[in-house]
Amino acid sequence: MMRYLTPSLMAVCLVALVPADARGQHACIGVKGGLNVSTLSVDDPADPDLAFDSQAGLVLGAFIQCGPKGWFTLQGEVVYSQNGAKARSEDASSLNLNYIRVPILLVGRLASLDGPLYPILYAGPQVAFETSCNVNREEGGGSTSTGCDSEELDDPLDTNNVEFGLVFGGGVEVQFGGLKGQLDARYNLGLTNLNGGTDASAVSVKNRGWSLTVGLGKLF
């Protein structure tokens, strides 16, 4: 599914940009990367005190921005995102969840494009595809990594491989020459219950987290 989303978005942008000069539109294609600080929101009536601490990870990917040279534009992304959380327990275990995320964002500019630097706000939906799920444990001076569904675990985890969520954020963009730089911070709000086990109706587990990214793109 993911391999069709980005070409489709690019096709929409290309159609919207013809002719770009006559219609006052532009596009920008670039790469981005940064830091994730993620955790899990857990609702378990049988263990109401269950909680997780946040953990850091990386986010890397590409973006395409297209639309009018006015106050609003559209931005699509495909990014690899390291998520998860640390358990508040004596065994110092952590859950690592890695995804390919595809957000589609409506970007609002808070200043005219006539200047080189302007703030932005954005929001939009995203779909995420799980690429791996592992439980890490610190024991005996070393660490072990086990797949979430491995029978080696006392309580194997069955996770949903597709997640839907919302993205909210803001930042600044700067244009110089034929390039555009981005610096932004965003909040990722997972809406899908990641628990795919038989107790999914009773126990809810959802992704939460902040991302700080820097991007550089080529203007067209």
Q: What does this 3D model show about the protein?
A:
This protein is mainly beta and about 220 residues long. It is about 10% helix and about 65% strand. The protein has two helices and ten strands, in the order ααββββββββββ.
Number of strands: 10
Portion in strands: over 45%
Count of DSSP-assigned helices = 2
Spatial separation of the terminal alpha carbons = 27 Å
> Which CATH class applies here?
Mainly Beta
Mean pLDDT: 85
CATH topology: Porin
Which key terms come to mind for this protein?
2 helices, 220 residues, 63% strand, elongated, Porin, 9% helix
Provide a quick synopsis of the model.
It is built from two helices and ten strands, in the order H-H-E-E-E-E-E-E-E-E-E-E. It has 220 residues and is mainly beta.
Q: What's the SSE blueprint?
A:
Layout: H1 2-16, H2 20-23, E1 25-43, E2 52-53, E3 55-68, E4 72-87, E5 94-109, E6 117-139, E7 142-147, E8 162-176, E9 179-190, E10 204-219
Antiparallel strand pairs: 1-3, 1-10, 2-4, 3-4, 4-5, 5-6, 6-7, 6-8, 8-9, 9-10
